[in-house]
Specification:
Blueprint: H1 19-26, E1 37-41, H2 48-54, E2 58-62, H3 70-90, H4 103-124, E3 130-131, E4 145-151, H5 163-175, E5 177-186, H6 199-208, E6 211-217, E7 228-234
Parallel strand pairs: 1-2, 1-4, 2-3, 4-5
Antiparallel strand pairs: 5-7, 6-7
Helix pairs in contact: 2-4, 3-4
Length: about 240
């Protein structure tokens, strides 16, 4: 496999993805829980929680950036968007332009998601919909959520976080998930487009906790090798 770095990233970027992108990544169109709470972990400026709340769900988001004011979040989000667009523009050839018709459409979706997030964040950050916290320790009680989502964080940063961090993070998400609830994680590859090499070991550890673990195909495409997501069901 080509070991070209697809995206040069120092530190952890602010993710900013839409409800529709979450649905495509995790096949959620028919799989959103009808009852119970939903958590988006390391959610940054994604509008998933905002959209869920507008649709009547009890949804929460957790990220260390939520210590920022709405104005500071918007400023940070705009700066991250500009930087990300420049990086993608330089390496457009390396990505799969299936779910986005062009870089321009990709950028427009990011802008729309950011603005939807900021509007909801202004009205709800003081009401605990947006909770300050970071993996591998989440500020929620055991057995709280029916669905826990984590997108463009864990394995994407496989060169920055070690195996212990990934295991602790997955076990922590399992802790806050209700019995019978689900955790979904995407992508399973890093910035070099390689699947996380210790994923089989992590799956074994999760199964030791009596969790049902599956690798499911997704129709979402952008990183070339990111064609599956991790699904964990708490038994």
């Amino acid at each position: 496999m080509n070991n070209e770095t697809l995206y040069d990233q120092q530190g952890v970027a602010m993710t900013c993805r839409s409800f529709k992108e979450y649905c495509r990544m995790f096949l959620l169109e028919d799989e959103l829980p009808r009852h119970g709470k939903v958590l988006d972990v390391a959610s940054g400026a994604s509008s998933f929680t905002a959209e869920l709340c507008e649709r009547g769900y009890e949804a929460y988001a957790c990220d260390p950036l939520y210590k920022l004011t709405p104005n500071a979040m918007q400023k940070h989000g705009l700066a991250e968007h500009e930087l990300a667009s420049a990086k993608l523009s330089a390496k457009q050839h390396a990505f799969v332009w299936k779910d986005y018709a062009s870089l321009q459409e990709h950028d427009e979706l990011r802008q729309a998601s950011l603005q939807q997030f900021i509007a909801h964040y202004r009205n709800n950050s003081a009401h605990s919909r947006y909770v300050v916290g970071a993996l591998p320790k989440l500020p929620f009680p055991d057995h709280t959520f029916e669905l826990v989502c984590c997108n463009h964080f864990l394995f994407l940063y496989q060169e920055q976080f070690d195996e212990n961090f990934h295991l602790e993070a997955l076990l922590e998400m399992l802790r806050v998930t209700k019995q019978g609830g689900r955790i979904v994680v995407y992508p399973l590859v890093g910035f070099r487009n390689e699947i996380y090499p210790k994923l089989p070991l992590l799956i074994e550890r999760l199964q030791e906790q009596h969790a049902e673990v599956r690798l499911r195909s997704t129709t979402f495409r952008f990183l070339p090798a990111a064609d599956r997501f991790l699904e964990i069901i708490k038994r």
